[in-house]
Amino acid sequence: MTIVLALLSSALFGAGVALQQRPAWEVPARYAGRLGLLTQVARRPAWIVGVIFEILGFALQVAALRRGSLVVVQPLITTSLIFTIALVSSWTHQSVSRIEWTAVVSVVIGLAGFLIIATPSEHSSGVSSETDWLLFAVPLLVALALLVPAGLRGPVRRRAIILGLAAGLGDGFMAVMTKAFAHSTEQGVGSMLTSWVPYALCGAGIVSLVLTQTAYQTGQPKISLPLITVVEPLISCGIGVALFGEAIHLGGARGPFVFAAIGVMAAGLVVLSRSAKAESGEPVASR
Hints:
This protein has 287 residues and is an all-alpha fold. It is built from 12 helices and no strands.
C-alpha cells in the first residue's frame, strides 16, 4: 500500500508541475524570490489547478509516510517527472522519442534495483530531539540564505543552476517535515495541534513553494528540473537516515550495485528533465 500511495502522490505532483511552470515563466523577474511571486501566479487558473493537484498529492504523500519511511517513499516520488512528461506530451500532441522512452525505462530499472538491492527499511521513528532538528535546519537555512541572493542576479543559466539547487534543498527538507507531520497525525488531533510540527511545516511549505516557483521563473527547466529532481530525494533520504533511524543496506557486495542503481535512475531523470516536453511551453522573452 505504501508504494501505491507514493505512486499516486507522484502522479498528482507531476500534474502539478506541468501546470505550474508556464504561469511562473510569465511573471516579471522583479518578483523573483518574493512572496509577491505567489500572488502573481495565483491569478492564473492553470496554476491554481496545479496547486490543487499538489495539495492532493501532499495528502497522499502524508498517507504513504505514515506507513513507510522516507528512504522508500521519496525515491518513488521522483517518478513524478515521468507523469509530467506524459501529460505535457498528451496536451501538446507530441510523441515520446526513443531516447525519452529509454530514459523512462532507466528510471524504472534504477528505482526497482535500488528498492530490491538496498532493501530500505519501512521503519522510521518520525521523531527526533529539538537539538537534532537544529543540527540539520540551521545549516540548511544558512545554505539557502547564501544561495537565494546569488540566484537572483547574474546570467539566466547561472540563476537556474543556483535556484534549482536551492529549490531541491527546500523540497528535500519539506519532505522530512512531512514525515514528522505524518507521525504527529498518529498521536491524535489535540496532540498534533499542540506540537510545533504542523506550524513549522506550513512555514517550510511556503518557503519551498516560493523557491520552486522562482526556479521555474528562470524559464530554464532543462537546468532547474534535473537539479530539483535529483537533490530532493538525496537530501530527504540522507536526513531520514540520520534523523529518524531509517536504514539503507550497503554492506557486502550490495554497495556498488546500490550506487549503480541510483546512478541509472538519476541519469534517466536528467534526460527526462532536459526533454523539450518537460517545458510545457516557451519562456517569455520580454521581462
